[in-house]
């Protein structure tokens, strides 16, 4: 069963390393894209054009014949999307101005209720607002016709405040641009994008085979690109999901529920050997790098080059790391899905993430494991999956949920992963005790 609403999510796709020639081309397009946007900002962000921003066609038409595209020799697919993007930004800054003005109108004690209603209505009716700002004739909207207000005084106020808060957007982003579906196609595992030579395309070999047919953001990196693809996901509803889960999120076991159920049991095994392997690799690499620099510094270039070729291959290292990361991510996602299927939650309660400002006295390995513990990723995926499955996600402050015995309420002892209570004699695990405490604390908070 579907409610018909959707959420937008960004999917990332990466290119292989690209030749400098291609990188140069991409940077050139991004630079011109930025120039076009700034030109549109300069021409159309003033009060005179407020009423012309929607639909975008009239501005698009004017820009087609202004000569800028020919001067830049920029293909139309980039040129026109840059214009559309710039107009969207201008509308965004008008939105900010209107919100600011609405807040000021509410806060201004010199205005009567009628004054406020007049001002709010003009702000709402774009054509009237535009006419006021440019001193044009306009028809009073029906709702404000009979109000007892000094229209001149209020219009002056609107103009003054708008002048004060309206800013011209500007862009200095020269490492990204957007491309529309008619600007690219796929062949032989590569995305082929329009270039400055008519009928020619430039190949961007991709790391995977996925293809899309929507506007894509091209993010230029040092020697490759990242493609950001917006995708829509339908929000699902599960009428049979009726339970409330209280979850402790750990880095040994991913989820421990107050019922004792555990999901993501192998997470620590996936993460820890990888963490240790990476630490070892890093040590080796930095030793090698030191040797390389020493040799290069003494002019022993042949030896330096050997080391570089054989040991500093960063791309192999990156690929391996990326594969491990993907494997862990897949595991995390499938375990969240499995939990949903088996536990059928309507609501999930977790603790707010704890800020780690006391990391200084952890050992290096623990520190690195924390940094790579996927805690942030797990929370992000849980939140996203709750959203698209219509599951309510609630958080409480973690304070007290770790140290207190969930059976008798006394202060307990934590030894490695065990939780011991001398008061009532219970012996359990830290994750299970914490999950039970989350349940107790949440229900205490919400039942008075
Ligand atoms: Zn106890």
Walk me through the structure.
There is one protein chain. The protein is about 50% helix and about 20% strand. By secondary structure, the protein is an alpha+beta fold. It has a domain at about 245-395. The chain is built from 13 helices and 15 strands. Strand 14 and strand 15 form a beta hairpin. It has a five-stranded mixed beta sheet with strand order 10-9-8-11-12, sandwiched between helices. The model is unreliable at about 360-370 (pLDDT under 50). The protein has helices at about 20-45, 55-65, 70, 75-105, 115-125, 125-135, 150-165, 265-295, 300-310, 315-345, 365-370, 375-390, 430-445; strands at about 1-15, 175-180, 185, 190-195, 200-205, 215-220, 225-235, 245-250, 255, 260-265, 345-350, 390-395, 415, 420, 425-430. Bound molecules: zinc ion. Zinc ion (ZN) binds near residues 405 and 408.
Q: What are the defining features of this structure?
A:
448 residues, five-stranded mixed β-sheet, four-stranded antiparallel β-sheet, 15 strands, flat, binds zinc ion
